[in-house]
């Protein structure tokens, strides 16, 4: 099949807890670095009279990336014996949170890094919550800098209990919690002589144990329209199939216009012959056997499993705006290929990601999570995030800035929807 053979991972955690160091170490210990890179960093550290700093490896790779030397300008790759990995967002990257909430950095798996000496911090919890909110399906925790706590099993056990307790309370169960030292290289690829008490996998073993998610071909069809092209008398509806499969002859339902029409042909950009079907992950154009009104932002599905059509919905948002989120204020919303002005009708709950306490509020401050009710000026086609990650995720734009990211979660609205 067309299952990817690489995994997209993201490193999260409190600043300075050792994400870059860990990544540098992984690159080093998996021999994923360009020839001479480690030596040049080692010499530079020696000249400065400091110990080898693995985090500089990442800085060096990123610098090259920023200068466009490496081919892909947003991603850095490494490989284990098992497969390839791409780090979809670099630790410390200032756009990190934005990328997470916009789905630009949609990860298959995450490593949450916690400093063994400092323990679980507010930012560790917030990032854990974000992973939950954004539906990152697989998480492993690394308790880093074990060298600073004398490789103490007691210290590790205490942190493991605390972070497992927190993650469990938000519905995340980590595959592993691993004691490591990025600086000393403990438990990056093999076992560690310093921690004979730890029976579990190393970081790279844990990575290799993550699953590569199968494409969403068996889910209900969602084909958000990106563009409508006219060639002579032909009209091609173009977009990316986000989930499901469509076939020539299928009857499609277009939302939110609620029109049904049959697929006359599928045009794939680089197929030798016109295909009879196309599936999740493919960008295609289709022609229809009737001229109905279709524009960018409309979503095609099958009648048996339509998206939700509504102008009001419930959501969880993560707010990043400099200005707090306010009820009554109008924002621009982008969801799949739709853009619409929306107002926040109510802020139903503000959730403290630290202790998970909830309160009602009139505003949501930067870095907070809230449950809100959103009203749109026009009808929308959307899904709950748990049903479809592509049509259940949106961003709110205030002026020119992406100020918040959210997921549609209609809990409590089910009854109204059926009416
Ligand atoms: P980031 O902000 O999470 O990417 O953290 P860095 O990787 O930049 O590390 C922050 C500091 O912690 C740097 O001075 C590292 O040298 C240090 N550090 C990282 N990992 C370890 C470790 O395993 N042991 C010790 N002793 N120091 C570490």
What does it look like?
By secondary structure, this protein is an alpha+beta fold. 20% of the residues lie in helices and 36% in strands. Strands 2-3-1-4-5-6 form a six-stranded mixed beta sheet, with helices on both faces. The longest helix is centred in the middle third of the chain and has 17 residues, at 153-169. The model is unreliable at 68-73 and 412-419 (pLDDT under 50). Guanosine-5'-diphosphate binds at residues 15-21, 53, 55, 91-92, 144-145, 147-148, 181-183. One of its GO terms (molecular function) is GTPase activity. One of its GO terms (biological process) is hydrogen sulfide biosynthetic process. Keywords: ATP-binding, GTP-binding, Kinase, Multifunctional enzyme, Nucleotide-binding, Nucleotidyltransferase, Phosphoprotein, Transferase.
């Amino acid at each position: 099949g067309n299952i990817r053979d690489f995994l997209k991972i993201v490193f999260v955690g409190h600043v300075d807890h050792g994400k870059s160091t860990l990544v540098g170490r992984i690159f080093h210990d998996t021999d994923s670095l360009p020839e001479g890179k480690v030596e040049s960093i080692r010499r530079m550290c020696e000249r400065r009279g400091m110990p080898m700093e693995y985090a500089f490896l990442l800085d060096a790779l990123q610098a090259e990336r920023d200068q466009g030397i490496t081919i892909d300008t947003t991603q850095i790759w490494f490989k284990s014996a098992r497969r390839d990995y791409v780090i979809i967002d670099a630790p410390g990257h200032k756009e990190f949170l934005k990328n997470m909430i916009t789905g630009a950095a949609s990860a298959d798996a995450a490593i949450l890094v916690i400093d063994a000496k400092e323990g679980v911090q507010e930012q560790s919890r917030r990032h854990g919550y974000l992973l939950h909110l954004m539906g990152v399906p697989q998480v492993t925790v690394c308790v880093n800098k074990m060298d600073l706590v004398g490789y103490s099993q007691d210290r590790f056990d205490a942190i493991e209990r605390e972070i497992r307790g927190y993650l469990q309370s938000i519905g995340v169960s980590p595959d592993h919690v691993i004691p490591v030292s990025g600086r000393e290289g403990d438990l990056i690829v093999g076992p560690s002589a310093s921690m004979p008490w730890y029976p579990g996998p190393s970081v790279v073993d844990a990575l290799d144990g993550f699953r590569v998610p199968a494409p969403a071909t068996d889910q209900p069809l969602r084909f958000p329209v990106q563009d409508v092209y006219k060639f002579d008398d032909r009209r091609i509806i173009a977009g990316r199939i986000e989930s499901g499969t469509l076939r020539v002859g299928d009857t499609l339902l277009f939302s939110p216009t609620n029109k049904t029409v049959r697929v006359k042909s599928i045009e794939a950009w680089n197929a030798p012959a016109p295909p009879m079907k196309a599936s999740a992950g493919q960008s295609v154009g289709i022609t229809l056997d009737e001229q109905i009104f279709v524009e960018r932002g409309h979503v095609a599905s099958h009648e048996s499993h339509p998206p939700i059509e509504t102008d009001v919905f419930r959501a969880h948002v993560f707010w990043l705006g400099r200005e707090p989120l306010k009820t009554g204020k109008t924002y621009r919303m982008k969801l799949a290929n739709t853009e619409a002005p929306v107002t926040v009708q109510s802020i139903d709950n503000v959730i403290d990601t630290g202790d998970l306490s909830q309160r009602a509020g009139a505003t949501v401050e930067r870095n907070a999570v809230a449950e809100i009710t959103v009203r749109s000026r026009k009808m929308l086609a959307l899904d709950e995030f748990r049903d479809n990650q592509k049509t259940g995720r949106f961003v709110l734009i205030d002026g020119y800035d992406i100020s918040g990211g959210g997921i549609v979660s209609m809990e409590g609205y089910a009854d109204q929807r059926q009416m």
